[in-house]
Amino acid sequence: MADIAPMPSAVNPQSPVPLDTIPISPADGTNGTNGTDAVKEPPVEYVDTDPITVFHDPDNFNVKHPLMNSWTLWFTKPPSGKGDNWNDLLKEVISFDSVEEFWGIYNNITPTSELGLKSDYHLFKTGVRPEWEDPQNKHGGKWAFQFKEKKLINIDALWLHVMLAAIGETLEDENDGEVMGVVVNVRKGFYRIGLWTRSVGKPFPGGGEGKTAGGKGRTTEEGREVLLKVGRRFKDALGLKESEAVEFSGHTDSAHSGSTRAKAKFTV
């Protein structure tokens, strides 16, 4: 695995880490050209003012399809010892805001199944750090599910499906404002996939009923129903059986318990 570049300067903590600072595939460096230089065809010129689509020129099609939000990929490298600081292990990789950019990144990073133990990928909305302390996360929580039979699942397909659900905005309705990001953890005995939310289904402390996620003035019951709906969609994205429950816990509870898996507030 390639070394990770030093943490960006504190003056500009959002500076992306170049892609070559995390494990990149394919390892043979051929970039899919079988060791030969790819031949680029000259672009086709059009005089028609109508929008050019893939049906006009599939070989040279380069029109980008924008996403509703910009997203940032983060990577946590395995610790080298007990003295490692979390901030030194967590690295911002790159941000993107189109379908094409997502696939360009996904096709050039190491699959989850090939990462070292205690590695994580985090895919969060740009501007949100994958940390409990981030202002947009501190009142929130996480839906999560552990896959204990690592050899029996295709973690790469599962993680891809969840990422596509996140950037495709299918995990919540347009004005819910709950989904902050998704994460996959690689551990010795399991894989875990989580979905971070802005709230725990109730108004933010000290803010009254108007301070729920999205600023929609939801009641506690309405906030709970939105959160449960997100959990059910997350469960569907994972392809779980009805008998397999995803659990939700608050970040504050996790911090107090000293574990990433505090007692579940909700299950679906």
From TrEMBL:
Protein name as catalogued: Translation initiation factor eIF-4E
Gene3D superfamilies: RNA Cap, Translation Initiation Factor Eif4e
InterPro entries hit by this protein: TIF_eIF4e-like, TIF_eIF_4E, TIF_eIF_4E_CS
Sorted UniProt keywords: Initiation factor, Protein biosynthesis, RNA-binding, Translation regulation
Pfam families per the UniProt record, alphabetical: IF4E (PF01652)
SUBUNIT field: eIF4F is a multi-subunit complex, the composition of which varies with external and internal environmental conditions. It is composed of at least eIF4A, eIF4E and eIF4G. eIF4E is also known to interact with other partners.
Function description: Recognizes and binds the 7-methylguanosine-containing mRNA cap during an early step in the initiation of protein synthesis and facilitates ribosome binding by inducing the unwinding of the mRNAs secondary structures.
